[in-house]
Amino acid sequence: VQLVESGGGLVQAGGSLRLSCVASGSTFSFSINYMAWYRQAPGKQRELVAAITGGGGRTNYADSVKGRFTISRDPAKNTMYLQMNSVKTEDTAVYYCNMAGKYWGQGTQVTVSS
Q1: What is the rounded average pLDDT of the residues 52-64?
Q2: Cα separations in angstroms, 15 against 3, 10, 82, 85, 110
Q3: ∠39-90-54 over CA atoms, to 5°?
Q4: In the predicted model, what is the mean pLDDT of residues 15-33?
């Protein structure tokens, strides 16, 4: 399985950004596996941002992003998304895509300026 993130960049506080994670190599796994977004800020441990079940029916979020971020998935495109609204400077981090708690993408940098 290969996971490739995109959509990161520089955004002003209060703005929006949408991250994408495209899965390849084992498309069957995409539709049934738990997937998640993690992030790691400089000097900090990697933390869970949001997760979504295989069927997409259940989601959960870190308290710090609840009400601002939305995780979703499109099985037809083997793609998972993270819609980030009302971003804050503390959202600055490298964001990683994860599948089934086992496979990781290379990460995409998100920088929020004040």
Answers
A1: 90
A2: 26, 10, 14, 6, 12
A3: 35
A4: 85
